[in-house]
Protein 1
Amino acid sequence: MTTTTTVATTTKYAKDQGAGFRNDIRRVAIIGAGGTIGKPIAQELLKTGNHTVTALTRAGSQNTLPEGIETVQVDYDDEAGLLSALKGQDALIITLPMNAAPDTQLKIIQAAAKAGIKYMIPNVWGCDFTNDSLMNSGLGTERHYAAFKEIEKTGVLSWVALVCGFWYEHSVGLGRATFGLDFVEKKMVLFDDGETKINVSTLAQCGRAVAKLLSLKVLPEDENDRSVTLSRWLNKPVFISSFRVTQKDMFESWKRIAGEKDEDWTIVYESSSERHKKGLEQMKNGDHSGFVQALYSRVFFPNGDGDYESKYGLVNELLDLPQEDLDEQTRNAKELMDRGYNYMTKRN
């Protein structure tokens, strides 16, 4: 994937910027601040004490927002309303559901540029979008490229996008279609040999990463400033991860925290490529549950596509992200499931 450089990054140092340039990000707007990834991001931003966080919400939204967040109701089809809501913001974070209209994000990008926002984290979360083969595997994720191009085309905005893998505790509870754990039938479906390593992240780790990024200085002050700045990642991916694990690692973790043994489960093996094909066929036939199976199966292909850590390394240390414990996060996933969070009884 190739990108261009926007006006905002043509000068390297803060001392060379024009009058009115501020070398930090204070006001952050979030679309989807009550959602799966939006809420932990908002919570972590508020914890820093460095930001005023504003949630852009649609009329009638039932999502519960973190305490301390400001709210503005918007209609994504009302450009004037969007401009008013975005005016004065330094950065915009977009988290939209997968079923959002394809042009929604583009409308928001255009409004953000007209409002004078400089930095954006678009609705691109999870898989390695720099991997063209992975992105062009029939899942519609190639639309991410359209978002990047639209942002850069404005000549005003710069983007930062998190490559974090699947959200671990969220995915565990989705059942067989994701990590192969079928909690209804007590069946573990191992893709290929079950030993393909992929990167995954917790929602909290993603929230911390975004908060750390937006708390950095935007540019080095001058040529002697060696501090880590946001400019390092403008119009570039940010690779983070909580764990580099296999299905077998996840299964062993589940058994440890649940007090279960192999004999409590039936273990079967399926081809990741066949699961991917089946998921795509379901999508063609109007069964949208096939998307989840196709997406996860594709990342588990034993060609290394899901293991971006080995290819590019991670920025966890640069962002001072904590090391997490797999069993603790699996326990968190189980507690969420026990409360009914995101558990899908429909199995694929």
Protein 2
Amino acid sequence: MSLWLDLLGAEIRFVDTKSFGTIRIAEAGKGNPETIIFLHGINGHLEAYAKNLIPLSKDFHVIAYDYVGHGLSSKPVRDYDPLMLAEQLGELMDALGIEKAHLSGESLGGWVSGHFAARYPQRVGRLMLNTSAGIPIVTEKGRADLEHFIALNRRNIDNTPTYESVQARLQWLIHPNNRHLVNDELINLRLRIYLQPESRAMLPKLNEILVHHDDYLIPLEKLPAGTLFLWTHDNPIHDTESVKAAQARVPGSSLYFVKGESAHWPQYESIDEFNTLALRFFKSGQVE
């Protein structure tokens, strides 16, 4: 199915923010009393949540967006870090008139969500950290995984991105049995974004976020009780031992391993399981 058929019924628009320029969002379920904001991973874009917005919009006001420097949002050439992106989230919420929202962040999105929740707890309902970055890496394997990911990103930075280099970057996200999901539409969408002149100027700045990973760890002890760590056993970065250690530091939190075959993108790979879990968690705070 096309991404645009998945998103049929969502409004795609651009929102002006005070300090971060114009931000592209996808929105559905306006009028529902509670809001979920979905945050994508590094070098990504809002289509990472194409499979989730419409199903969850029956019960929630749902928003996915491109970070500043990503997707089709403004791309000022500046230093980037998770704290800055957390401030962007706050400004976007202000621009949309949203005082408080549930957050679901994948990879960099979890990292940003964690910092935002720690800094502005009054603005966060429930928090889902989905294969999140920004947690301490406690194994040699986890450290090697991070170095491998940095090198993989550099293929699209140090050289002109190609179909093959973007395909490799996307396949890294996906369980080997789900590689059919990395189709021409998804590859060409991201390739076109990467080939924009303003994107080419920005990509080196974005990779620096990963290089300085340990300088911006989430303050786990400040996360809200009830935080959900949503993980997979085949996550290619931030391995199971690291997430177990991180979850143990958050009082009242829970850890859920996706049962379906998934790697780094469970919301895109195990769609029904993710959507069912998200609906239950954001309604009640319960996981099972």
